[in-house]
Amino acid sequence: MKDIKKQLSEMRRGSEPDKAFKKALWVDLDAEFRRQYPAFFGFAWKRAFAASVIVVFVFVSTGMGTYAYASPNVTSGHTLYPVKQGIEEVEQRFHASPQARAKFHARMMDRRLREGQVMLEHGRLDDKHFILIADEMRLSVSEIARAKQDPESRAELVNRINMYGERYRALAERTVRRVREQSPPPEPIRNKIDHARVYISESGLDEEEKAILLRRLELRFDAETASQAAAPR
Amino acid sequence: MKKADFRVFYEKHVDAVYRFVYFRAGSDRQTAEDLTSEIFLKALKAFSGYDPKKSETAWIHTIARNHLKNFYRDRKQTEDLDAHAFHLEGENEQDIVSRTDTANLVARAMRVLKKREQTVVEMKYLQGYKYKEIARALGRSAGSVRVEAHRAMKKMKAFLTPQQSRVKPTRAKENI
Questions:
Q1: If you measure CA to CA, which chain B residue comes closest to A36?
Q2: What is the mean pLDDT of residues A224-230?
């Protein structure tokens, strides 16, 4: 007797829609889309975008925006941080393809890591910032999975995320060490890395790419958490 | 609304929606294609109002279910989708004859399941969704969905084992 799962698989294969049908349906939907939304940039969207660009232009032309955007010292809590976020948001809209968005989010991950470094030095690094870093990693990884690109460009992007993942891990380790010096004892920091681990595991990357990124994120925290637990309070 | 977003949505759900209507339209391909086209046109019109916080899967399946009910209402048939689910009769006699007995048995086994179990098995093994997506669509935990799927499979296996020992292999209908 065939395994029930195999039988269901057969049923699934037997009920697969015809490729020609799916292609033809998309052509119809594409035509309908153009009919319903004649201009890709609707008028309301144009106005909102134009307003953002004007604000950014004012800040950049006064020099404040350039400083806000470029400096890792402008971190969460800084007066100019909303300006930095605004510029990044505008910049994001200019990246249309998944490949461009993957590079953009990789760059944002790098920026959040630099900010994290500054925040750590000032004793202000918190869970929220680790989640921001993990989010940029997640967004970059999901765009890499979606992008149709040559293997070389893809490998280059995966390597870049790999390196940033290493910096993420190093930052988390330094945070644990720093906080351990203080009292009360720190809460476990593993869950910060787990955000990134879950995102990578559930992404559309190849198994090999996932393994590369996850290996880098593997923390040797067992020894450290054991020593944490054993440390006198 | 970005066309690229709708394209991603379409590629992700078109197979599942097709299968959903296929198994409720007497396994007739032409009908399934027509219904799938109409469902995605409705989805396109409503996409700009879709709330991303809600499950995409649940959203498109709601559109599909409502469209199917209208389809049956127009044909003056019962709008109970469960009554139509997994009947492999088809409209083409050749389809009936060429369908293996195994497929018929599996379809009957699906009808033995409770509605919740059938939904989980269908979404997982026929439509290809992951447990996490199914859980989100049904408003449950992935763990409970996984347990339900396992129990349903056991039930189907228990139904099929005595049935399949009685099945003789069939040959294609000979030309007379």
A1: B45
A2: 51
What number is the average pLDDT over the span B37-49? 91
Inter-chain CB proximity B128 and A21 less than 8 Å: no
* Rounded Cα gap, residues A179 and A128, in angstroms: 16
Instruction: Give the count of Cβ contacts less than 8 A between chain A and B.
Output: 82
- Per residue in A70-94, pLDDT (tens digit) is 788 888 778 778 778 877 877 777 7
Q: Do B102 and A10 make contact, defined as CB atoms within 8 angstroms?
A: yes
Chain A CA closest to residue B125: A8
List the single best residue of A1, A11, A201 to mutate versus B (max B Cβ within 10 A). Answer: A11
| CB-CB contact of A105 with A88 (8 Å) | no
CB contact under 8 A, B128 and A12: yes
Select the residue of A4, A11, A18 nearest B160 (Cβ to Cβ).
A4
Q: If you average pLDDT over residues B159-175, what whole number do you get?
A: 56
DSSP string, B76-138: T----HHHHTT----S-HHHHHHS-HHHHHHHHHHHHS-HHHHHHHIIIIIS---HHHHHHHH
Residues of B in contact with A28 (CB under 8 A): 37, 41
More confident residue, A57 or A3: A3
Nearest to B15 among A7, A17, A28 (CB): A17
ipTM (interface pTM): 0.80
pTM (whole model) above 0.80: no
Weakest mean pLDDT among A179-193, B22-36, B137-151 = A179-193
SS3 labels along chain A: CCCHHHHHHHHHHHCCCCHHHHHHHHHHHHHHHHHHCCCCCCHHHHHHHHHHHHHHHHHHHCCHHHHHHHCCCCCCCCCCHHHHHHHHHHHHHCCCCHHHHHHHHHHHHHHHHHHHHHHHHCCCCCHHHHHHHHHHHHHHHHHHHHCCCCHHHHHHHHHHHHHHHHHHHHHHHHHHHHHHCCCCCCCCCHHHHHHHHHHHHCCCCCHHHHHHHHHHHCCCHHHHHHHHHHCCC
